[in-house]
Amino acid sequence: MDRFAELSGLTPPPGGSGWPAGTEWQDDDVLWRIEPLTRRQTVHAGTWAPVLTVMRVLAERHGAACVRLVVWFG
Hints:
By secondary structure, the protein is α+β, with helices and mostly antiparallel strands. It folds into two domains: about 1-35, no CATH class; about 40-74, no CATH class. The protein is about 40% helix and about 10% strand. The protein is built from three helices and two strands. It has helices at about 1-10, 40, 45-60; strands at about 25, 30-35. Strands 1-2 form a two-stranded antiparallel ribbon. A hairpin with a 2-residue loop joins strand 1 (about 25) and strand 2 (about 30-35).
């Protein structure tokens, strides 16, 4: 995060809320850009298939608004 702040000239957002989409910075000959990703772009369906199946079943039974998955990667 310190290296990014140094290269981009931006102050880190409070509370780790993330950098705004479209933020770009150059690191030597590499251009980096912040872009939002969808779940499909980040979660491999094969690995998460059992979890997503259970969530789908729970949503059908109780309504999508009543189903939430909270994951923490440490």
